[in-house]
Amino acid sequence: MLHCLRRLSLTAKTKLSPPTLEGGLVDDNTLSSRSSPTVNLSKAYIHAVQASSNKEIWSKVHHEVPPALNIEVAQIEFQEEALQLEDVLKPSHEHVQETISPIKRDALNELITKYFDNTEQTARLCILISQNVNKARLLYAPVHKLLDVLPLDSDSLSQAQYDLAFDIFLQFHSLVNHHFPCRDTYNFNNMLDCSLQLKNQIELRLHKSRSKVKLLRCVTRGSAVCLIAATVGVVISAVIIATHGLAALVSISISPACLLPSNMEKKEAVLVQLDFATKGIFFLHNHLNTVKSLVDRLHYVMESYNGTIRFGIESGRDRYHMQEALKQLRRKHSASLEELVSVEEHLYVCFTAINMARDHLLNYLRHQNQAPR
Question: Which of 85, 196, 203, 326 is buried most deeply by CB count within 10 Å?
Answer without folding.
Answer: 326
